[in-house]
Amino acid sequence: MRSTFVQTMARLAREDPKVMLVIGDTGFSVMEPFEAEFGARFVNVGIAEQSFVSFAAGLAAAGMKPFAYNVVSFMTLRGAEQIMLDVCYQENPVILVGVGGGFAYGTAGPTHHALQDIAMMRAFPNLDVYCPADPAEMEAAMLTAYRRQRPAYIRIGRSVDARILPGPVDAPLERAIPLAQGTDIAILACGTILREAVQVEKLLEERGCSVALYSVPRVRPLDEEAVLSCASGHRAVFTMEEHGITGGLGSAVAELLAERGQHPAVFHRYGVSDSFAMLTGSRDYQLDYFGLSPQKAAADMWRRWSEGQ
Questions:
Q1: 197: phi > 0 → left, psi -120 to 50 → alpha, else beta; which?
Q2: C-beta atoms surrounding 39 within 10 Å
Q3: Fewest Cβ atoms nearer than 10 Å: which of 29, 55, 237, 250?
Q4: 3-state DSSP assignment of residue 64
Q5: For residues 205 and 182, what is the distance between their CA atoms, to the nearest angstrom?
Q6: How far apart are CA 271 and CA 250, in angstroms?
Q7: Distance between CA 240 and CA 236 in Å, rounded?
Q8: Residues β-bridged to residue 121
Q9: What is the predicted pLDDT for the residue at 160?
């Protein structure tokens, strides 16, 4: 998705002279072509996350259209006050792009893990939150955020991500995207864990369970119609995310279902438990440790669905 980000940035910058790219001393080996082509419209603020956010907000206030790219854990935690007051409170249309969501930097430890960012960004007024799962969703998220001209947060992984969706995704990116239709279980997944969710769906189908799978690339505003349809048409609804279970997609879905009085027989949020990852390991290792590997998640969903019938 990083390559898609740079390619889409270049396309927008060629069409709109107000588009700028701001980085926080990251993105090396992928940002150089943009810098070479657009010169002064590329700014490296350096390792100064709070100034980085305020700088981007100032550009937006002056009429520019900045995309601000930085590592998720540093940008959201260190720059939280600036995101809230300089971007959201003043409604400056900065598009914050966070790289390294979830366990993308798994071996770097808790300082680099990003497991609370969706919860934080959902809590700030005036901020749209996108969690694209593959290059097609990433391009659509960028175009949607650019055209809406309001504060936005786009959360991506780190590695070279192959396509998951069969074709391009249209902008504006507002709806959950159906990947499989089934009648027993509905799975709603956002972001990088969609790849694992696709495998979960296949494992459950092999056991004879009919599964509907949806990608939810925009967490805020949430596609309420899709969520309520899943709840009314399936006995079990599960959410999956590479994020803590508190405040993310699962919480957004649970809040909506509770407020609308729709209660499927079984509902469960699959995410990282309320703890730090105290053992060092790769993304795959961490997902397995927290029960989010395809095999463990599918086994647990099968158990919960079977017991709830």
A1: alpha
A2: 8
A3: 29
A4: coil
A5: 9
A6: 8
A7: 13
A8: none
A9: 63
Could you report the per-residue pLDDT of 141-188, keeping only the tens digit for each? 999 999 999 999 999 988 767 789 988 999 999 999 999 999 999 999
CA–CA distance, 297 with 118 (Å, rounded to integer): 21
Cis peptide leading into residue 221 (ω within 30°) = yes
pLDDT for 20: 97
Using one digit for the tens of pLDDT, what is the confidence trace for 190-200?
999 999 999 99
* DSSP letter, residue 261: T
| Burial degree of 120 (CB within 10 A; 0-12, 13-18, 19+) | middle
Q: 75: closest CA among 86, 83, 66?
A: 83
Q: From start to end of the chain, where are the E strands?
A: 19-23, 42-44, 65-71, 95-99, 128-130, 152-156, 177-180, 185-189, 211-215, 218-220, 236-244, 266-272
Q: Determine the Cα–Cα distance for residues 214 and 65; give it in Å rounded to an integer.
A: 31
The two beta strands, 65-71 and 95-99, are parallel
Query: What whole-number distance in Å separates Cα of residue 224 and Cα of residue 176?
Result: 9
Structural tokens at position 36: 């070479």
Query: Could you tell me if 293 and 284 are in contact, meaning their C-beta atoms sit under 8 angstroms apart?
Result: yes
Residue in the block written with tokens 């960012």:
117
Residue ranges of the chain with pLDDT lower than 70?
A: 160, 309
pLDDT of residue 27: 75
